[in-house]
Write a structure and sequence with these properties.
6 strands; about 55% helix; 3-stranded parallel sheet; mainly alpha; Tyrosyl-Transfer RNA Synthetase; binds tryptophanyl-5'AMP; about 350 residues
């Protein structure tokens, strides 16, 4: 496990022998600021050090089929791809692709599913939470983490930059890889998760005890800010954020709602904690909120402008995704061939 400390540089590697980073997002709605802080901004910040694979995991999105219509899924996948680029991922260097365009993913997922004890999957908290909320769930939701393991292991990823909520899936990926290696010979690389020290778990503005999520963002006003929200929505959401009746702005003493605001400010401005505590101490939460409104609006403005530019030229995005699929398939099909040899099929 690694933690990104914004003040400490990542382990540096030569460009010729760059370590591999892989991550992905489910195209189940417009991305929110939690996705940006926990994942995309981290990918963009660290990208030059690594050979990166950034997926849009549309096969994973099928695990909640009642929420997905074909047209919506196709459109969401393109929105996510455009947002990757808008958030600063360089498509000339990083490989941006749709998971469904690389058949090795579900193929390897099947092989890994066969090596994964049911008990390991039953322990996954995301499965437990999602299945408790629904009357019945598809088997895909249960084996979801094996597909995620395949996503990662196909590219021999060294690092997987994700939010805190994915930690258990990354640990499971290591366990599955280890078990495969024990069964068939040392082959799969055990990846490490990369998490931000601050901002790895952005909480809902309306309820700082619940993680900001795409599904709640769609159903509850005031829960989240999406990357495409206009300034008036950003303002309304932050000004309405749940805080507390006090005035505590020290990171280690603040209530969950205030700490959430402080961490967002910290990640977006890269200012030090002592400087932030000094700036907001004794001024009331109104000042913190107003300043954060400006910070978030300014951070999202260039992303939204770039997004408009990218989506005004559909052929450009088609090209990025086609090249991405080609590059991803080249690596993934080689790994799959090795795995097929090892298991004897
Ligand atoms: P997903 O689509 O739920 O979320 C995408 C990324 O955003 C992070 N994230 C958050 N970070 C901080 N605060 C939050 N409130 C917050 N909400 C979401 C997630 O941790 C994630 O990094 N299973 C994955 C997708 C996936 C994947 C993979 C990721 C499939 N295969 C392989 C990495 C590697 C998921 O559902 O992410």
């Amino acid at each position: 496990m690694s933690v990104i400390d914004q003040t400490a540089p990542m382990p540096s590697t030569k460009v010729q022998s760059r370590k591999v980073v892989l991550s992905g997002v489910q195209p189940t709605g417009v991305l929110h600021i939690g996705n940006y802080i926990g994942a995309l901004s981290l990918w963009a910040q660290e990208q030059v050090k690594y050979q990166n694979y950034f997926m849009i995991v549309d096969l994973h999105a099928l695990t909640i089929p009642e929420n997905i219509k074909a047209e919506t899924l196709r459109a969401n996948a393109r929105t996510v791809a455009a947002l990757y680029i808008a958030c600063g991922i360089d498509p000339e260097d990083s490989v941006i692709f749709l998971q469904s365009q690389v058949p090795a993913h579900p193929y390897l997922a099947w092989i890994l599913t066969c090596c994964t004890p049911m008990g390991w999957l039953e322990r996954m908290t995301q499965f437990k939470t999602k299945s408790e909320q629904a009357e019945t769930v598809g088997t895909g939701l249960f084996v979801y983490p094996a597909l995620q393991a395949a996503d990662i292991l196909l590219y021999h990823a060294d690092y997987v930059p994700v939010g805190e909520d994915q930690r258990q899936h990354i640990e499971l990926t290591r366990d599955i890889a280890q078990r495969f290696n024990n069964m068939f010979g040392e082959y799969l690389k055990l990846p490490e998760g990369l998490y931000r020290k601050s901002g790895a778990r952005v909480m809902g503005f309306d309820d700082p005890t619940a993680k900001m999520s795409k599904s709640l963002a769609e159903t509850r006003k005031g829960h989240a800010i999406t990357l495409l929200d206009p300034p008036n929505v950003i303002k309304k959401t932050i000004m309405g954020a749940v805080t507390d009746p006090g005035s505590e702005t020290r990171f280690d003493h603040a209530s969950p709602g205030v700490r959430n605001l402080l961490e967002l400010y910290e990640v977006l401005t890269k200012e030090s904690r002592p400087a932030i505590e000094e700036k907001f101490g004794g001024k009331g939460y109104g000042f913190l909120k107003k300043t954060l409104v400006e910070t978030v609006t300014e951070a999202l403005r260039p992303i939204q402008e770039k997004y408009q530019e990218i989506t005004s030229d559909p052929a450009y995005l088609d090209g990025v995704l086609a090249r991405g699929a080609e590059r991803a398939n080249a690596v993934a099909s080689k790994t799959l061939e090795d795995v097929r040899q090892l298991v004897g099929v």
